[in-house]
Amino acid sequence: GFFMSEKLEKVKTEVAKQMAQMDVAESAMERQMAELAVIHARIDELQRAMMKFQDMLQDALANADLCNLNSIFKVVKLAKALATLLDVKVLDLSSSIPKVEVA
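User: That's the sequence. What structure does it adopt?
Assistant: Structure tokens below.
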């Protein structure tokens, strides 16, 4: 009786410990899945923006009047905007999602 009761308590304790470890692991996986969803959405957003700016830049280049400073400025402005998008970080060096500063 006593020996079986003691053994049963040890088993219950071990099961509770393993369940707690699985809960922690499950929480970590859920957090990682949420982070991946944010990264995926951010990459999609950047891709759409880059394609839009690339199309706008190609149109501006095709219609640019090299004798008109405003036309040249528009091309340069679009090129700089595209370059800025190309430099946006999706992850920082620690593989974390960087904070986006709103200007």
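DSSP finds two helices and no strands in the chain.
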